Amino acid sequence: SAVISQKPSRDICQRGTSLTIQCQVDSQVTMMFWYRQQPGQSLTLIATANQGSEATYESGFVIDKFPISRPNLTFSTLTVSNLSPEDSSIYLCSVDSWATGELFFGEGSRLTVL
Amino acid sequence: EDKVVQSPLSLVVHEGDTVTLNCSYEVTNFRSLLWYKQEKKAPTFLFMLTSSGIEKKSGRLSSILDKKELFSILNITATQTGDSAIYLCAVEMNYGGSQGNLIFGKGTKLSVKP
């Protein structure tokens, strides 16, 4: 299993600003995943962060809005840019087990945009 | 320490069987319990439970929460091969009366054989 730490755990931001969320894993992983969880809805995959290459974004998500860094095999950041109230959500970092396909999640970062 | 424990970790059944997946939790500020089905990288939301003893039902799936004994079960009747997936349980924390972050269990890997 993997232990994932996310920072910040929660934040309140003003419209138009940006928030950067950090994700630290206790082991080296090839891929890290960023999700958004809105109330009562399925987890939505934003992008897959690969070390040494650009992130792969899912339909509906763009790099200008959600820039991602992946400087090494244990760390990634997701920035949510030009915030609007619609961006209020939980953002989750995840890694998977190459052996079993299980997903391991951080506790999430709850963002509220005023 | 807040935690969510799912059992069994894996389960193999035959089509037509009924399965019960378990999720127990110990958290300081419980708000809700969520069940997801994970087949690919974005788990699909199944149920959100907030009240004890009220069964939620969707087709062959049902779930119930016991806030006194701190657990939930997810039942699947007349299983089909398409039910093969990892089932994730997560607890949403309460934070000052508003929504908090999520703690995920490790999941139950269900395999349904024809």
Question: What features would you describe in this structure?
Answer:
The complex is a heterodimer of chains A (114) and B (114). Chain A has one domain: Immunoglobulins (Immunoglobulin-like, Sandwich). Chain A is 0% helix and 51% strand. Chain A contains no helices and eleven strands. The mean pLDDT of chain A is 88. Chain B has 114 residues and is mostly beta strands. Chain B has a single domain (3-113), classed as Immunoglobulin-like (Sandwich), CATH 2.60.40.10. In chain B, strands 2, 4, 5, 9, 10 and 11 form a six-stranded mixed beta sheet that branches. In chain B, strands 1-3-8-7-6 form a five-stranded antiparallel beta sheet, with no helix packed on it. The radius of gyration of chain B is 14 Å and the shape is globular. Chains A and B meet through strand 4, strand 5, strand 9 and strand 10 of A and strand 5, strand 9 and strand 10 of B.
CATH class of chain B: Mainly Beta
- Give the number of helices of chain A: 0
CATH 2nd-level architecture of chain A: Sandwich
Question: Helix-strand pattern of chain B, N to C?
Answer: EEEEEEEEEEE
Short summary of the structure?
Chain A has 114 residues and is mostly beta strands.
Core attributes:
heterodimer, A: 114 residues, mainly beta, Immunoglobulin-like, seven-stranded mixed β-sheet, four-stranded antiparallel β-sheet, 51% strand, globular, B: 114 residues, six-stranded mixed β-sheet, five-stranded antiparallel β-sheet, 0% helix
How are the secondary structure elements laid out?
The complex is a heterodimer of chains A (114) and B (114).
Chain A: E1 4-7, E2 10-13, E3 19-25, E4 31-37, E5 44-50, E6 56-57, E7 68-72, E8 75-80, E9 89-96, E10 103-105, E11 109-113
Chain B: E1 3-7, E2 10-14, E3 19-26, E4 30-38, E5 44-49, E6 56-58, E7 61-66, E8 71-76, E9 85-95, E10 98-104, E11 108-113
Parallel strand pairs in B: 2-11
Antiparallel strand pairs in B: 1-3, 3-8, 4-5, 4-9, 6-7, 7-8, 9-10, 9-11
